[in-house]
Amino acid sequence: MLIVAWPIWAFGDEPAEEKEKEPRELTWDDLLPEGATMPPPVVDHSSLVLFDDFPVTTVDGVVPELNGENVKLPGFVVPLDVVGDKVASFLLVPYFGACIHQPPPPPNQIVFVEFEEPVRLESMYDPVWVVGELGLEGHASNLARAGYSMKGTSLEKYRY
Known about the structure:
Elements: H1 8-11, H2 16-21, E1 24-25, E2 70-83, E3 86-93, E4 111-120, E5 128-135, E6 139-140, E7 145-146, E8 148-157
Parallel strand pairs: 1-2, 4-8
Antiparallel strand pairs: 2-3, 2-5, 3-4, 5-8, 6-7
């Protein structure tokens, strides 16, 4: 009787180190603690709203299991540290106009992103994908308070 043994890797999945390199693709709902739901964005251009009329968002808290994960998250860029046509740090937000129109989204719906080397930003008006290591360190700026932080490794245009 002849027994043929094939190496496991011949028909198996890709090697473990290849899987680890692929970022985990997240949605903004993934950044909400279990059981939390997001209220709709409070950006209304149909009437003049006074600052005192803005509702207060109570959704807060982060997801500890995401700490240190290599992730890919879509969103819009609100630049903080601009160097020419490049940006070194920014707030990543889930919808256009967040943080520029008040009130900003809740902290767990804002990610402070920082790149070691500034990256080229083609347009603030187009959504992007940001890849990097997600952290739970908060960040406060004059625009908003971010509940998450990210060490960015790449920024690319979002493709529908």
